[in-house]
Amino acid sequence: MNAHDRIEEALLSALVLGSLAPPAAAGAADPAGCPPKLQAAVRHAVFPGGARIRPQLCLAVARACGDSDPRLTDAAAAAIELLHCASLVHDDLPCFDDAALRRGVASVHAAYGERIAVLTGDALIVLAFQVLAHGAEHAPQRLPALVSLLARRVGAPTGIVAGQAWECEPFVALPAYHRAKTGSLFSACTEAGALAAGADPQVWQAFGLCLGEAYQVADDIRDVAFTTDLLGKPNGRDLALCRPSSATELGLSGAIAHFDQLMARAVDAIPPCAGAAALRALARAESERLVPQATVRDLALAA
Amino acid sequence: MNAHDRIEEALLSALVLGSLAPPAAAGAADPAGCPPKLQAAVRHAVFPGGARIRPQLCLAVARACGDSDPRLTDAAAAAIELLHCASLVHDDLPCFDDAALRRGVASVHAAYGERIAVLTGDALIVLAFQVLAHGAEHAPQRLPALVSLLARRVGAPTGIVAGQAWECEPFVALPAYHRAKTGSLFSACTEAGALAAGADPQVWQAFGLCLGEAYQVADDIRDVAFTTDLLGKPNGRDLALCRPSSATELGLSGAIAHFDQLMARAVDAIPPCAGAAALRALARAESERLVPQATVRDLALAA
To answer: Helix (H, G, I), strand (E, B), or coil: what is residue B114?
Structure first.
């Protein structure tokens, strides 16, 4: 099965595990007894997805490390994507970004209200750990390290929740903010891929962190260079919300050069392994997807 | 060590594990790099606690089952209390109960703002699973079942998150609502206590569910019979928010009689075991703490 299908299947299985998949017949009562709005909102938050780059990265690293427990790899990849979806739902809340659009459609709070959006994020975090536990039922030896890793990369003191909390502080250490807000979950992907395959996660951390930093810069670039339509969410938010942005700081061309450097550093950080070529190809494809020649680089040159 | 000290110590260890304990010197920068408001808000949500009845129940059942892995028991008890604290923080948010008081002091959103309150709940959920994983590092065999249990009792389709989500539906099945909102986490306590001790959780579920139902009724009674001062949070909220309440439905005396029946059923549901007498004593003490003779029963008789 290719990576894309494997990830979508793992996410669908996750929703089935949490009794959050749609009832067999549309309009039928849910036999599991889940409140219908919560069920619909969780599905809305997970499907259809974006690029699913985080679970792809987790899978790619697990494969590079031999993928000795594919069921656990799938669980780790799905858990990371669920945690990512949870952070998007809570980030979009009125008290944070107050974003009405996400992935080209209504954000969860815009579609289902603020209360259901808070609960959807909560349910997704809980489901992520449930999925991980389910994937390790047959062989629990790797579970404590995987749960600890995801918790550290998502929670306090330096995970994505902490990254978001830096936005509530009067003084922000920018590198700590960026690393927590984006880098942490990217390093979770590479480290979890290794852990699920029984390999040493440590040597995979730098690859994830560099990629995460590159993604943060790409996000800044796209916020400036993409239309709202292309972006699937409102553009120009960094300037509007006075958020730190490398595109504002370095200019569009400067930010693109910085992005290219970070992607090169990420590729250099791939440890020697059988799957290194595939990982380099993934990084190249992501580079073009994130900062495309036609819409961004040519635009920057013309400016 | 007595149960009270064991629980406070387990919760303090949990905050240390999450780098959320206070820095050694007051006013010193946090070496772990946690955003200060998030760190302070998490501590505010956990200390000082309420009656800690949920972790007490978990500990009591584990002891009744032999408490063969005390480190795991402590982790399970702390995880459940952290999940309970998370649900209180999110329940108090402006979009839900909009409560300014909790346990006699400012609620987290009143003290630290709405954004930090959302993130505090998220961080506490994540920390709960981290604590569980840490407690199982030396012997991971019981971890998958424990993580799955807590996830089911907290998340969708029938955990406390789902219970809260029923408040967003136009039609609510009352028994499903009560069972999800209160019963689920109480049954998590008894089941997790058994699981942590390597015993069968199934036979312990009814005891937890009956206790949870009794607590829901006690909550309704206290909302009517207690002053805001005694309650530590605003009283009369059920009527103000048009929430279903057994005190409104049955009258104060009727609700007290119903509470007594539920506590009697809970005691009857204790499986035969060495610790049964201690569990019966715990239930009796809780009964008097929740619905005290002097302030509630005498009041109902006088009415």
So the answer is: helix
Band of residue A28 on the pLDDT scale cut at 50, 70, 90: low
Quote the tokens at residue A67. Answer: 């993928």
CB-based burial label for A110 (10 Å; 0-12, 13-18, 19+): middle
CB atoms B35 and A116 under 8 Å: no
Distance of CA B129 to the CA centre of its chain: 16
Helix (H, G, I), strand (E, B) or coil at B106: strand
User: Alpha helix (H) ranges present in chain B?
Assistant: 3-17, 36-46, 53-64, 70-91, 108-112, 114-135, 143-154, 160-166, 174-178, 184-196, 205-225, 228-231, 237-240, 246-268, 276-290, 298-302
Q: Is A166 on the interface with B (CB under 8 A)?
A: yes
Contact B155 A30 (CB under 8 A): no
Assign 3-class secondary structure to chain A. CCHHHHHHHHHHHHHHHCCCCCCCCCCCCCCCCCCHHHHHHHHHHHCCCCCCHHHHHHHHHHHHCCCCCHHHHHHHHHHHHHHHHHHHHHHCCCCCCCCCEECCEECHHHHHCHHHHHHHHHHHHHHHHHHHHHHCCCCHHHHHHHHHHHHHHHCCCCCHHHHHHHCCCCCCCHHHHHHHHHHHHHHHHHHHHHHHCCCCCHHHHHHHHHHHHHHHHHHHHHHHHCCHHHHCCCCCHHHHCCCCCHHHHHHHHHHHHHHHHHHHHHHHCCCCCCCHHHHHHHHHHHHHHHCCHHHHHHHHHHC
Closest chain A residue by Cα to residue B161: A119
Give the whole-angstrom CA distance, residue A102 versus residue A47.
12
| pLDDT confidence band for B6 (50 / 70 / 90) | very high
Cβ separation of B164 and A119 shorter than 8 Å? yes
Residue A242 banded pLDDT, cuts 50, 70, 90 = confident
Whether the Cβ atoms of residue B37 and residue A165 lie closer than 8 Å to each other = yes
The answer as to whether B25 is a domain residue is no
Specify the 3-state DSSP secondary structure of B34: coil
B28 lies in some domain: no
Region class of B242: left (phi > 0), else alpha (psi between -120 and 50), else beta = left
What total of structural domains would you count in chain B? 1
First-to-last CA distance in chain B? 44
Write the pLDDT tens digit of every residue in A244-269: 788 888 999 999 999 999 999 999 99
CATH number at residue A258: 1.10.600.10
Instruction: Please judge whether A165 and B116 are an interchain contact, meaning their C-beta atoms are less than 8 angstroms apart.
Output: yes
pTM above 0.90? Answer: yes
Judge whether B26 lies within some domain: no
- The boundaries of the domain holding residue B70 are 3-20+34-302
- The answer to ipTM > 0.90 is yes
The answer to the question of residue B289 being in a domain is yes
Contacts of A36 in chain B (CB under 8 A): 169
List the single best residue of B160, B168, B177, B243 to mutate versus A (max A Cβ within 10 A).
B168
